[in-house]
Write a structure and sequence with these properties.
CATH topology: Rossmann fold
CATH superfamily: Vaccinia Virus protein VP39
CATH class: Alpha Beta
Distance between the termini: 56 Å
Strand content: 15-25%
Largest sheet: 8 strands, mixed
Strand order of the largest sheet: 1-4-3-2-5-6-9-8
């Protein structure tokens, strides 16, 4: 049996996903890295709180870096009617995101990018960025996030960004009693 190089496999998966009627996926050059974190879904109540804390409003463009199954971008599109972009390096997560987008009929508002969040070319379009990454990854993203338009908002579920002072820290509890924290920063960052 002949082995297919990973880069070719990722490209083929991306091309198949593009062929799904009504789905939108933008593929950057095939990702050659493995994901930095394992996929752990953000609880829906936390998704709602993140978007609320970010102050999402008409005209915003929401980017979810490491979008997993796409629940944040789908919620932003459905609840606020905004354009949303999900980015994930894992082809399986991209596939799940596209299925979620299609199931919720928000293809006209949501784009999924199969790519690396650290080399993303169009992040400057974002007015809101959502994160559920480890603290070190948040810090690694800071140079890119600092280039966002002034007034852009960044929210993170559970993890902060060392070196910056959050504008807001919100503690909340899910209906099943799980406590969580949402951090918000505005661009330009305030140094700690």
């Amino acid at each position: 049996m002949r082995r297919v190089p990973l880069a070719l496999l990722v490209l083929l998966v991306s091309l198949v996903l593009v062929a799904v009627p009504g789905a939108q996926v933008l593929a950057q050059p095939p990702a050659t890295r493995t994901p930095d974190v394992i996929f752990v879904p953000t609880p829906q109540e936390a998704v709602e709180k993140m978007l609320e804390v970010a102050g999402v409003k008409k005209g915003d463009v929401v980017f979810d870096l490491g979008c997993g199954d796409g629940r944040i971008v789908v919620t932003a599109a459905k609840k606020y009617g905004v354009r949303a972009v999900g980015v994930d390096i894992d082809p399986e997560r991209v596939k799940e995101s596209l299925e979620n987008v299609k199931k919720n009929k928000v293809e006209h508002l949501v784009t999924i990018i199969h790519g690396d969040i650290f080399t993303l070319k169009n992040l400057g379009e974002a007015s809101v960025v959502t994160l559920y990454l480890l603290p070190d990854l948040n810090v690694k993203l800071m140079p890119q996030l600092a280039k966002l338009k002034p007034g852009s908002r960044i929210v993170s579920y559970e993890f902060d960004m060392r070196g910056t002072k959050p504008k807001q820290v919100v503690k909340a509890t899910t209906t099943d009693g799980r406590q969580f924290t949402v951090y918000r920063w505005d661009v330009p960052f305030e140094k700690e």
